[in-house]
Amino acid sequence: MRVELVNTGTELLLGNTLNTHLPFVARALFPLGLRIARQVTVPDGTAIREALSEALDRSDIILVTGGLGPTTDDVTRDWVAELLGLPLVRDEAVARAIEERFSRRGLSVPDRAWRQAEVPAGARPIENPNGTAPGLGVATRWTGGDRPGPRHLFLLPGPPRELRPMMADQVVPALAALCPCGTSAPMRVWIIAGSGESVVEERVGADLVAIEGLELGYCARPGEVEIRGIGPAKRLDEADRIIAEKLGSQLVSRTGESLDRVVSGLLRARGETLSVAESCTGGAICSSLTDLAGASDLFVEGFITYSNRAKEARLGVPAELLRQRGAVSDEVARAMAEGALETAGTDWALAVTGIAGPGGGTGEKPVGTVFIGLAGKRCRTVTERHRFFGERETFKRLTGQAALDLLRRNF
Amino acid sequence: MRVELVNTGTELLLGNTLNTHLPFVARALFPLGLRIARQVTVPDGTAIREALSEALDRSDIILVTGGLGPTTDDVTRDWVAELLGLPLVRDEAVARAIEERFSRRGLSVPDRAWRQAEVPAGARPIENPNGTAPGLGVATRWTGGDRPGPRHLFLLPGPPRELRPMMADQVVPALAALCPCGTSAPMRVWIIAGSGESVVEERVGADLVAIEGLELGYCARPGEVEIRGIGPAKRLDEADRIIAEKLGSQLVSRTGESLDRVVSGLLRARGETLSVAESCTGGAICSSLTDLAGASDLFVEGFITYSNRAKEARLGVPAELLRQRGAVSDEVARAMAEGALETAGTDWALAVTGIAGPGGGTGEKPVGTVFIGLAGKRCRTVTERHRFFGERETFKRLTGQAALDLLRRNF
Questions:
Q1: Comparing B159 with A4, which gets the higher pLDDT?
Q2: What confidence tens digit (pLDDT) does each residue in A308-319 have?
Q3: Is B310 in Cβ contact with A314 (below 8 Å)?
Q4: What is the DSSP code (8-state) at residue B220?
Q5: How many CB atoms lie within 10 A of CB A184?
Q6: How far is A54 from chain B (nearest CA, A)?
Q7: Is the pTM for the entire model greater than 0.95?
Q8: Which of A40, A254, B72, B312 lies 20 to 30 Å from A226 when distance is taken between CA atoms?
């Protein structure tokens, strides 16, 4: 079964919005043994028809996102109906659900919201508990292209908080019923910290390529390299031995688990707690740790001490030290970590201080310089100096990754 | 000139990575009068050849990202060479740049890095100051498809911190030279807070549609609706009058400027400062404010008081109040905001406390309940109660938006 994803929306092609549907849908399909063979983004308008028609020529399952809402640029329903030669008819159950949704919030139904109750004849509405526009499932027989045959279309709403539960709770089960015997070859994802892509492949690449029947992929992200293997379990075990041997403590996880999850897991396993003192990262480390459910067991407190005054008052960093060494220094990172440990009373404390840029660099400490400190109840404080390249957000991300990795390696 | 963007990379289709290239490239092209007519994602392998060949049939300018690196799955160069019938030749200038890059870091060149110096004959290497793989520009004449003629390919590296400066500094000027007379009709983007898409279009939609020659689009995101208009300046002014009149204080910006930028701009204009006390958002508000360069002028300090103990110790929230009212309460939000204002000595302080879920909800205060407090030196403290639906990250985002909007409306 070949799967294609068509994302509609002029905003995606004007650069106003990130396409978060692709990764979400891809991850939802993988356990069913389905991979997206191609993804296409088209603007609202006739391009939708063109992309749909090509997808119908090529693929068995076509997932379409967006353009089901109430506004005038929401035209996906209309094009699907035209392309498949189906009239649009009002679905009374959908109309009632729309009415209930508005009345629950004490609102009357705006005229244009009724558009969302119009469905191509024969399409199966898919309930949307998080919005007014239902999804639609359409099973049809396609006679165009080189591969005529049955086709399954799923039209899904554009807003992620509507699409995600609908995909997980309703579309995935429907797809599982369509391809009951599909299970993917196992995939394993190794996350490596502390080296770039070239260096990682130089160390393990030749040995991994030599494993027969293993599909390999590499992906570099700020602060980590992902190695992806798809193949029989035995081959994956071979790969695992090579990666563990050659990359040692740089191996963060064998499950694709991100560094923040790995660090959270380590803390949870020992029932230990963490506090974080952030200057240049401005809360990004705390925020990534608290994206995980149950963070309150591990993460006690964060000190976003952007100003020198806050570093002194909250973390007890001596004013003298700040003056002599500068806020961005090894000694201040150490003092911040130790101050956070003591003030918050946690088992561990991380601290970062650096120059995110674009301004503030000097010859001795250029933009991108950062000092990281780790203090622990039962160990000596350690610090590291790094220099990261990239824009402000990349810098924050690289610094956060390096800080969490310092804790991981010293845990 | 029709533009197509081809993103290569199995990791994109397995859901391991977000495609951030599309918005970046789209925004870079718009001022040149160029829009992306179609974006396609394909896995590494022969699908790249297929997508490239279709793009060459259809479009004048084809931008390709990814697959230029040193690893075995980096095959874009090879497919382009084959498709255009060009041999791969070693470019000595590129080879020297690769050598210099590694030696600057005290490393010798890994064997596979040399692959990156192989370019299709006649292609123009595009310097990559942030990585070893150069970009490539290829001008060719395409004889396939219904529209034979000149084509311009640009092959760009996959890592965003390599692609972005290359796009901005080298590809955009090259494209500007190709289409010297292209300038887009002006675009204006209005950001609206506090209502959903249906309600926003119900209030302004009919009046906006009545403006002749105005291309309209809507996009809903957590906490905001974006209205996008493209057309002559006079028509945009008409639209602006309607939006300002009908949506009043819900209009956050007329420039697409996000809420965090708008709030930062307000503070900067008056030279005032802000501190933030976060519980359920765990640093997300601080982090979004410090993504902006120059944040240190406005943003003094953040208190990520996840535990009750931290709320007491850092913000002076009375233990009695926490016990009586609970950490998630109007009174505690108020006390947190006032505590942050006093402790940090800022002009303004925002505080949020809520239940991000999935656990922790009660009948009276279900998951998604949040209280927001705003304290200011010269005004009475205000609080708001909200209930947000969605997963943990959506909840954090909605809460952060509501907090910043509370400050904006009370500034």
A1: A4
A2: 999 999 999 999
A3: no
A4: E
A5: 13
A6: 11
A7: no
A8: A40
pLDDT (tens digit per residue) in A347-384: 999 999 999 888 888 889 999 999 999 999 998 999 99
Alpha carbon A22 to chain centroid distance? 10
Task: For chain A, positions 23-62, list CB contacts with chain B under 8 A.
Answer: 23-27, 30, 35-44, 47, 51
Euclidean distance between CA atoms A119 and B261, whole angstroms: 41
Q: Give the burial class of B174: count Cβ atoms within 10 A of its Cβ; 0-12 exposed, 13-18 middle, 19 or more buried.
A: middle
- CA distance to A121, B25, B161, per residue, from A391 (Å): 51, 16, 8
Q: Cβ of B302 and A299 within 8 Å?
A: no
Q: How far is B48 from chain A (nearest CA, A)?
A: 10
Of A18, A345, A390, the CB nearest to B20: A18
Distance CA A324, CA A329 (A): 10
Q: Which residues contact A286 (CB under 8 A, 6 or more apart)?
A: A276, A278, A299, A302, A304, B282, B283, B286, B287, B304
Query: Burial, A316: exposed, middle or buried (Cβ in 10 Å; 0-12, 13-18, 19+)?
Result: middle
Q: For A109, how many CA atoms within 13 A lie in the half-sphere containing its CB?
A: 19
Residues of A in contact with B51 (CB under 8 A): 38
Cβ distance of B43 and A51 shorter than 8 Å? no
What SS3 state is found at A11?
helix
Answer yes or no: do A38 and B40 touch at CB < 8 A.
yes
For residue A170, what pLDDT is reported? 95
Subunit contact A10:B51, Cβ cutoff 8 A = no
Report residue A325: phi and psi, to 5°: -100, -20
Nearest Cα neighbor of A36 from B41, B63, B5 is B41
Q: Find the helix or strand (DSSP H, E) in which A142 lies.
A: strand A135-142
- Angstrom distances, CA of residue A331 to CA of A264, A328, A360, A400: 27, 9, 19, 19
SS3 B94: helix
Of B37, B281, B301, the CB nearest to A307: B301
For residues A188 and A232, give the distance between their C-alpha atoms in angstroms, rounded to a whole number. Answer: 10
Q: What is the ipTM of this complex?
A: 0.73
HSE, side-chain direction, 13 A CA sphere, residue A237: 3
Closest to A304 (Cα-Cα) out of A323, A320, A280, A329: A280
- Residue B181 — pLDDT band, cuts 50, 70, 90? low
Chain A within 8 Å of B213 (Cβ-Cβ)?
no
Which uninterrupted H or E stretch holds B50?
helix B46-58
